Amino acid sequence: MGRPREFDEEVVLDAVVQCFWKRGYEATSVRDLISRTGLTGASLYNAFGDKQAIYRRALDHYVEGSIGDRIRRCEAMEPRAAIEAFFREILARSLKDEECKGCMLVNAALDVVPEDPGFRAAVADVLHRIEGFFLSCIAKGRASGSITSSRPAEDLARHLLGVLMGVRVLARVRPEKSLLEGVVDTAVTLLDQDAVGDRREGAMG
């Protein structure tokens, strides 16, 4: 039997996430991870594998604790409110990010994905998951009349995904409240076009 681990894996992964998130994949050394976690190199490798495997575990941990958690909470809301709540939380996180670390998933797409097909597929899967969340909300909102049906649901979902990625990149270099809120508010308003049109038609009738 192997010896039981003498550390809390969740705590270690939290530390690893912070290290990779702040420095990026290439700039983070195993020595950095050892310093941040307090583990030996042998303990890290035995628990998680090589540096690439450690990064993959850290990215998965980040996704489930951040993006996955947000999706699960928002899915319990009314569809239109769910989309807005999702973006409001993104805005709050972006504006409070004093180190301008951005989103670890987006950083991975720019830092690692071009060189690694495996990571490309992993990041793409998460983006599909986010797009699927938007699409599900839009479909439910269209059925209840709270979201526009003037545009294809798939196009709206893709647009929201693009807005999300853009906001997270903008926040790294221009974390300005008016800029980020303006981008999000405009995107969210597109969900309401039918309601605006209906009011205009009613006024003309």
From TrEMBL:
Keywords: DNA-binding, Transcription, Transcription regulation. Pfam families: TetR_C_13 (PF16925), TetR_N (PF00440). The keyword Coiled coil does not apply. Transmembrane segments: none annotated. It comes from the Bacteria. Residues 6-66 form the HTH tetR-type domain. Residues 29-48 bind DNA. InterPro entries: DNA-bd_HTH_TetR-type_CS, Homeodomain-like_sf, HTH_TetR, Tet_transcr_reg_TetR-rel_C_sf, TetR_C. This is TetR/AcrR family transcriptional regulator, transcriptional repressor for nem operon. It comes from Bosea robiniae.
